[in-house]
TrEMBL record:
Bias kind Basic and acidic residues: ranges: 259-269
Ranges for domain GAF: 46-193, 212-379
Region of interest (Disordered), residue spans: 258-284
Record-linked CDD domains: HATPase_UhpB-NarQ-NarX-like (cd16917)
Organism, as annotated: Parafrankia soli
UniProt key word Kinase: yes
Source organism, top-level taxon: Bacteria
Gene3D superfamilies: 1.20.5.1930, 3.30.450.40, Histidine kinase-like ATPase, C-terminal domain
Gene Ontology CC, one term: membrane
UniProt xrefs under Pfam families: GAF_2 (PF13185), GAF_3 (PF13492), HATPase_c (PF02518), HisKA_3 (PF07730)
UniProt-recorded name of the protein: Histidine kinase
UniProt keywords, alphabetically: Kinase, Transferase, Two-component regulatory system
SUPFAM superfamilies: ATPase domain of HSP90 chaperone/DNA topoisomerase II/histidine kinase, GAF domain-like
Amino acid sequence: MFPTVARLELDDLLTQLVDRARDVLATQSRLRGLLQANRIIATDLRLPVLLRHIVEAATDLLGARYGALGVIAPDRTLEEFVHVGMTDADVARIRYLPTGQGILGLLIDDQRPRRVDDIADDPSAYGFPPGHPPMRTFLGVPIMVRGEVFGNLYLTDKHDDAPFTAEDEELALALAANAGVAIENARLYHESQQRHLWMTASAEITRLFMAGAPDSLGMLARRVLDVADATFVALALRADDGDGDGQHARVAVAVTDQDQNHAHDRDRAAAGPAPAGGGRAGRRIPLEHTLTGRVLTERQALRVDNAQLDALPDERTNRTGPLMVVPLVAGTDQCDGALLVGRDHGARAFTDTDLVLATSFAGHIAIALELAHTKADQERLLVLADRGRIARDLHDHVIQRLFAVALGMQDLAQYENPSNADRITAYIENIDATIKDIRRTIFELRSTQPGRGNRLRGALEKISDDIRPALGFTPAITLSGPLDSLVDDRLTDHLIAVAREALTNTARHARATTAELRLAVLGDTITLDAVDDGVGIGDSTRRSGLDNLRTRAEIVGGTCSVTTPPGGGTHLRWTAPL
């Protein structure tokens, strides 16, 4: 038998060995738990999914009832708060997630691990909002990415109700270190995916521009909307209105995530404001004291976190928060426009990487636009050369032959009986009308900018010729302003109809001796004035004929008024916004 003292020493030694064995087993269990947690973290590279996996792994590893990961924003608040443990009913009662006050804010300001045995007794405790489940113990550790604090991992209330220990803190720090590596990998993966999406979009849009696809600018805006995970995209180009001020940019296209039918985006933009207050096509943005003007002037991209404070209404929607404004720079000397990309207020802010990728995309698009314009200019020169040849042939050959025929028939009419002479005279008048049509065609063919403006000019001249027999004289026509570049097809149709109705009313009711049409672009408005020296607007029949003109004005958001000038007659003014 062992002596009593020796037996006691042996019992103590056995007890120590058992305790150490238990500690080893506990350590092994914790290491296995840490390895399992690391495996869970590494299963997905999507950052939102990864953040939730980190919190779930931490609560399982440390036996905590509640866990959360707060992502720190540039202003040192919590821009994202991923939590586990609370039920949907708990979240609904609390209503608002933490923003970084109290003990959470202390960990943001002092990036060191923090253990608290009773939150209520901690001097930095801010208190819980109504409906928040009770919590007592607390453990918080920072998560570092690239040497900077990405966020903090928060754990509360162990299942055994014991306080968090130093071993728990070490385990949480080890998990946070691995989480930082995983977050870095997820960020790199996300950046590579985004770079691929931007490059693919750049190639697609370049092909569309070079092919001269219709609505290529609208397709560009919608593609950026998808790639940038944005809710608002607009393209502003330097205004070329012919006024020479050079102090404005014009919104070429604007789309939002609320647009349901992408095929009609440009039609809706031309007809009125984009959804949620977005800038519409044709709106002008001043270059002075605006984000767009700053980007066009400095040729440097910029981003803001709250566009409601920093941007004009035409540079955003009424929902826009984060906003990027990126220059379209094709070379080193000129910036032809800017790409505006926005997200809703409260959404994830744009990063420096987002700005770099969008800037690279905009540079490629600027070059593609320049090449497309050059190609279009070359094709236009070929068309103009062909049109010039046709115009010369019409003038030198066709008109001369028609003149010869008309002169011959005029001479023949002198020797025919009166009935035949009248028929020949009618034929001669038809030939004269044909010659006028050909001359009008020659004028349009020789124009350097065939398009809407020439269509409008030609239509007004034809209306003047058509109404001349009824009036007994030719009404004067005066045109001024950049009609070619500002008046779209829809507005051209309205102007032609208004001009015809106005002159028709004059011919039917005014008994005028002079009449004039004046069409002018003044700022953002086009004005059509129809003036005659007739008997005025007193006839009720003539008044009813003007109702259609007022209806057309209401359709386009314009005005229609009829007044009597001091010298008598009638002055009809019809306006529409551009």
